[in-house]
Amino acid sequence: MEGPFLRSPATQDGLAARRVSSGETESDRNVKTQFRVCRFMMETGVKLGMRSVPVATACVLYHRFFERVSAHAYEPYLVAMSCVYLAGKVEEQHTRTRDIINVSHRYFNSDSAPLDCDKEFWDLRDSVVQCELLILRQLNFQVSFEHPHKYLLHYLLSVKSLVNRHAWSRTPVAETSWALLRDCYHGAMCIRHLPQHIAIATLHLALNSYGVELPVGEKEWWQVLCMDVTKAHIDAVVSDLLQLYDMEAKCI
Question: Which residues of the chain are modeled with pLDDT < 70?
């Protein structure tokens, strides 16, 4: 199941794999592929006008799927397209397969015209639909997920009320928190940690980045907002996120 415009990135990944040093493991190459494919889904989602939660759902579907199958068993970009298609249904922002295929085609071939509705196009469309069914079966039709987004929104509102409004307006804590949260979906860390812990950790990192201090009480602010989170949880999420940024540098 490989479309005509999907061969290019797959071939590039193969060439990159052959160029890597002997010290790079198979796991490292798989993580790089994950990162690149998730970036593809995010950029495709933006061009399709999808909201942040459906795009996050597409990434989780992708990570959950490859938890259960071999990383080499299926073409990753085809799976990604099917995840975007399925996520639109799950989050009630349905997107046509034709639009997904054309946007994906432009992602890899920026100067080309939309694909003709010929046999090759319909074969690719059928592959996307068939892959969607495969994903559903592999995940036992469990395709609804709880994301950190609602928690982060709540935590931001709570923290904002504790900070001097002038200090808050001078620092983009909210924007940075949302950007960090989005970045979490580039890797499998988004399914390894509880959504509440991811939300707390991204806000914690954003506050520390800008030196924003909160009033000191008997408990840390993050303990007040999320009773079951510990400093170890926060550190684990931040560590995974920093590893993703290190991976980003290697993927450029």
Answer: 1-24, 252
